[in-house]
Amino acid sequence: MFISVGPLRTSTAGQGFMPTEAVTRDQSTKDVINFIIGEGAKVHPSLTLADMGTKGMGLVVSTDIKAGTAMITIPRKSKVLINIDTACDDPDFGKVICYLKGAGLDERGCLAFWLVLQKLASTRSSKVKTRWCPYAAMLPTAQKLRDHPLLLDDSGMSAIANTALHASVTSMKENTLRQLGHLLGILSALEVKDEGPVDTFIRHTKIKQLWLWAHAVLLSRSGFGLSGEPGDSGVMAGEGLLMIPLVDFANHDSSGGNAEIRIQHASTGWFGGSSESISLVAKRDIKAGEEILISYTGGDILSAEQSIFTYGFRMDRLGAPDKFAVPTVSKPDGSDMRDVIRRLVHMDVAKDEADVITIQKDTYPEALVAYMCIDILAEKRGKLESLCQAYSNAERQEGMPPQVQSGCGFFYHQLELRPRKGPKHCSRAGYNH
C-alpha cells in the first residue's frame, strides 16, 4: 500500500528562491549571525535568512557566490555547536543538564530539555536571558512543525489510521512522553523554587506539546549529512547528536543541492597541531537571490519512513516523491478494508507490467497489494491490463494466506461485474486480453 501521509510535506527539489526584492537581513537574522560570529564563526556578508513558505525559514544569498566559497565556517572548538558537551558546559543550564545526565536521562533527552529551556528563556516574559536567545527565538514553533509525526494532531493521525504508520507514530509519541515522565521525576528531586525556565517548564500548561516540540526540533535539525575533504572520514570525532546553528536553516534538495556541509582539517603550526571546522560550501556558482540547498543525507539513501520520522517530510528521489510502503493492520476479510481504500491519499499507478511487478515486490503479502489496488486501478482507463497482470501474479504466489485468497476472490468477482472500460476485460481463464 503506497500512501502519501496526509499533511506530511515533501521536500522541494532544485527550486531556489528568487525574490522580487533585494534580500536583506532583518534584525532577528542580524542577532543570530552576530551571536555565532561572536563564538568564532565566519559568515559570508551576503548570506541571510528568508521565509520559504511551507519549507519554513531558509538560507539565501544577496550576491553571486563562486563555487568553493565557504558561506559559513564554525571551528570545532566553538561552543556554538550544539551537542551534549555544549549543553553540559552551558553557563545558564549546564548544572541541571549534568544532573539529569547523571540521573540516567539519555543524550537526546538532555539535549531536548536544554532546547526547551533556551526556548523558554527567549520569550518576552522570561526573567532569564541567555546568549542563546537570538537563536532559540528563531527556531520553528510547534505550529510550523505540525507536519512532523511527533506533532500530528487528531486530523493528521486520522489520515493514517488503519496503517502500520499510525502504530509507529503512536509508539514513538508514547516513548517520548514516557521519557517526559522520567524527566519530571528527576526534576522533582531538585525542588526547583525559582521562576526561571526550569520552573516554567514544570508548570507549563502544554508541557507535553512542548516536550514533543523539542524532540521534533532535535530530530529534524541534527541529521545532516557531512562530507569531508578527500581522505577524510567525513565525520567529526566524538560526535553524537549535533546541531549546527544557522547551517541548520538550510533546506533539503533531493538532487544534491548547490551547497554541502564539509568537515575540514587544517594545520595550526610548527608542532604538528591541527584544527577541525565545519563549513557550508558552495558546490557550484550560486546566483544572487538563490536559496542555499543541501542534501540532508549526504548522498546516503534514507527510507521514506526514516525521512519522515527524522525530518518530517518524505524525501524526493530524482525529483519524484518517494513511495511510502505502509502495511495495513486491517484484516483482508473485514469491512474496514474499504475504509483503508478510502483513506488512500496518493498511490503510484503502474504504467506497465514491469512497474507492477516492481511495486508488488516492495510489500508483503503481494496478494494484499493487488487486492487493495483493484478498486483504484480498475477505474483508471488504460490500467486494467496491468491490474490483471498484477492480480494474476499475486494469485499464483505460493503460500498465499487463505483470508487473502478469499479477499482477492471477492474483489475479482466485483471487478467482473463492472462495465467493461478501456482495454479488453480480463477473463478468469488465463487472464486473456
From TrEMBL:
Pfam families: SET. CDD domains: SET_LSMT. One of its GO terms (molecular function) is protein-lysine N-methyltransferase activity. Transmembrane segments: none annotated. The lineage of its organism: Eukaryota, Sar, Alveolata, Perkinsozoa, Perkinsea. InterPro entries: SET_dom, SET_dom_sf, SETD3_SETD6_MTase. Residues 45-297 form the SET domain. SUPFAM superfamilies: SET domain. This is SET domain-containing protein.
